[in-house]
Design goal:
Molybdopterin biosynthesis moea protein, domain 2, two-stranded antiparallel sheet, 413 residues, 6-stranded antiparallel β-sheet, 15 helices, Hypothetical protein af1432, 2 domains
Length: 413
């Protein structure tokens, strides 16, 4: 199976995964094994579907990255967020089912832990008509995946807790799924202004974090509530909500003074906003959004470990993705390494409509004469980034050190 951008889909291709309806929650637009025809392809384009997964010979091993049970959990998380937002929008906050939200997150974590190979972000929930819902679902799922990769760092940051409790990320997931719920309490003109400008300096927009906190405080665990309150804090102290500092100036929390959960959600939040700009211009290639995170101002806003965690769970070129190489060959990504994420393993494809499935296998870490130049339908040759030393981008080496370090002075649990 491989994921094909919609502009490269041709009639006769057979779906390897169902296509969710982008404008109807929980509805399947096209079922698995459906053979795409001209009419269906035209409809997919009209609805704004970005890509589909198709069957392709000799690529069955990519299925190991796609667990349908995890996808079902993603749909359930998506539905829970939609329900929470619908309830919050009506002002009937008493009916928010926080226990069910927690159960939903725990069920998804169980599936991710059972199948770590599939615990990367390769399937995105489609929700064209509700960017806030799509965004919140993505941030929630990415945050959970990041949290699972950061076990040693969580122990280091939550020293007052046992290792078992420190690495429990259920409340991270609850906080992430509800992180923007306060937006629904803002005046409509404030929301419209935010959707038009994306201006985070707008004082009225900034109120959404305190409004969200007031909504969930006392109803969810403190760490989940703090995540809602502080998901716009930045590692360099330039975020919000602000408070009076010792020198009398207003400023946000900085560094380790920010709880690790909102640090994780902040990174996922910024990444997703870069990938899907509010100006309606469409999606930005994943590799480009990740490359932007490496540069100012974003690199100053993120805990460096959260950036490495994103790279570990949101590959620039996920397995199954269709790319073009500098040799002008089409290829499908077959594996990736967080040590050098822009140099994955690939298999060349002679013809998307071919049935032979033959191709050359390249490990781009070894074939440095080649690089990916096109992904998600866009030229990305300026977006690739490479480590200056072997472990610069690799979270695994940091995790090994974190698990081995002795505990020091405690931080907020």
């Amino acid at each position: 199976m491989l994921r094909v951008p919609i502009h490269q889909v041709r009639p006769g291709m057979v779906l390897a995964l169902p296509v969710a309806h982008p404008r109807s929650r929980g509805q399947v637009l096209l079922k698995q094994a459906f053979e795409v025809n001209k009419s269906a392809l035209r409809r997919l384009k009209q609805l704004g579907v970005r890509d589909i997964w198709i069957q392709y010979p000799n690529l069955e091993f990519i299925n190991t990255y796609i667990n349908p049970h995890i996808f079902d959990c993603q749909v359930r998380v998506h539905g829970q967020i939609a329900s929470a937002f619908d309830t919050a929008a009506t002002g009937n906050h008493a009916k928010l089912d926080y226990t069910e939200y927690k159960n939903t997150i725990r069920a998804m974590l169980d599936k991710l832990i059972d199948d770590p190979k599939a615990a990367i972000f390769v399937q995105e929930m489609a929700s064209i008509d509700d960017s806030l819902l799509r965004h919140s679902s993505s941030v929630c799922i990415i945050s959970l995946l990041m949290g699972l990769k950061m076990g040693g760092y969580l122990v280091k940051q939550r020293k007052r807790l046992t290792a078992e409790k420190a690495t429990d990320v259920v409340n991270l997931g609850v906080g992430a799924m509800l992180h923007d719920i306060g937006i629904l309490s803002l005046d409509p003109e404030v929301i419209d202004r935010w959707n038009e400008t994306g201006d985070e300096d707008d004082p009225e927009y900034r109120k959404h974090v305190t409004k969200g906190y007031e909504l969930v405080r006392g109803k969810v665990e403190p760490t989940a509530a703090v995540t809602v309150l502080h998901h716009h804090q930045r590692y360099d102290g330039s975020g919000f909500p602000q408070r009076r500092q010792y020198d009398g100036k207003l400023g946000g929390l900085a560094g380790d003074k920010i709880h690790i959960f909102p640090r994780i959600v902040s990174a996922a939040n910024i990444f997703d906003r870069l990938r899907y700009p509010l100006d309606g211009s469409g999606s930005v290639p994943t590799v480009r959004a990740l490359r932007m995170l490496r540069h100012e101002p974003y690199c100053n806003w993120l805990d460096p470990m959260t950036f490495k965690a994103i790279l570990a769970v949101v590959p620039p070129y996920p397995p199954g993705s269709l790319v073009k190489l500098s040799s002008d060959e089409l290829a499908v990504v077959t594996d990736f390494s967080s040590m050098n994420p822009c140099r994955p393993s690939v298999r060349t494809i002679k013809d998307l409509t071919s049935c032979d499935g033959e191709g050359e296998d390249y490990d781009l870490k070894l074939r440095t004469d080649l690089e990916i130049v096109e992904s998600e339908g866009e030229d990305v040759r300026e977006d690739n980034f490479y480590p200056e030393h072997p472990h610069e981008l690799d979270i695994n080496a940091d995790e090994e050190r974190a698990w081995g370090e002795e505990s020091g002075p405690g931080l907020a649990a």
